[in-house]
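ERR on first pass: missing label on line 2. Operator R.T. fixed the label and resubmitted. Corrected input:
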Amino acid sequence: MTVKAAFIGSGGIASHHMKQIKQNRGYSIVAACDIAEDRVQKFCQDFEIPRHYTDMNKMLENEQLDAVLVCTPNYAHAAPTIAALKAGIHVYCEKPMAMNVAEGRKMLKAAQDSKATLTIGHHQRFEPASQFLHKERLAGTFGDIYFARAVMHRRGFVPWWGAFHIKAKSGGGALIDIGCHIIDLTLWLMGSPNPVEVTGVATAKLATRTDGSRPNQNKEKAHEFDVDDFATAYVRMDNGASLAVECSWACNSAVGRLVELYGDEGGATIQPLTIYTQRHGQFVDIHPGKLPEVQPHGAATEHFRRVILGEAENLVKPEETLNVQKILDGIYKSTTTGKAVRIAD
Ligand SMILES: NC(=O)c1ccc[n+]([C@@H]2O[C@H](COP(=O)([O-])OP(=O)(O)OC[C@H]3O[C@@H](n4cnc5c(N)ncnc54)[C@H](O)[C@@H]3O)[C@@H](O)[C@H]2O)c1
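pass 2 clean. output:
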């Protein structure tokens, strides 16, 4: 059964989703809205979407929608999400959930007050390796997971398009942009414990350079850059577990993405996918065979469709992504105060 849906925001990620949706055929996309009319017009032409809007409220009024996909910059996640949920429309909102915890709480409340579902675009949970490790955790392979590492470094890839580098529109830099993904994935693989204390540093060391010494510099926009390009943190959980976080848009390291789980029965890395355990008094490393090829963004929107149709349970719950937001806020606050930050309920 198809779901009747519309896009809010018609930039890079909206186009990416649209390509997957066209292949999967589970949606009827009837409209799109963007504050930039030329952009939304082209988006609708490219993907044969019948109607375009520059006013989201008009679109919500005129179209009989089952769902919206919110693909706007971070500053414009909360308002359309809340408006749609109030109108009983299901929402797939891109990551990060919001600019900060205060906005995230309002989104969660709107979801709790609505019959409609809110999910957040943490597509990394839908990668086959993530799904495999999740099932292994549920099967008890790791026992009690008491530590994890969540790392997502880019050597030099600042998203210079759009508003990612401007704090007022993004809420932060590398940490909120890609750190949110790896924190979300790792927390979920840990069994979603609640964070209680954070200490961290978010800083900018390389992205503001315009001296030609590194690839990916942007002379025109570097002066606007007022967010972090690198962050580290240590997070304590309510179950006694801890989490180490590292992420960057630019750094002098070849380490890319890393999730490591440490449990009292077993551990794991996600890339290369390996389980570390013991059998018959011997250490054993398990390397699962070839996993299916899955496009995770396509899998995420397809899952959302099945949730709407009552065929699946929402995998990325807003309660969980609010915990991610608490960690992000905590790291930014800890950077400013130079102290550990207790995370309120
Ligand atoms: N899950 C992922 O892998 C992934 C990848 C890229 C981006 N994202 C997220 O998607 C969001 C958008 O990123 P992007 O790369 O597509 O950005 P983009 O700049 O390419 O596109 C954003 C679009 O939103 C429009 N817009 C801005 N404010 C609006 C408003 N109030 N109402 C309607 N439209 C508005 C802009 O005009 C633009 O066309 C960000 O939150 C980003 O974090 C997620």
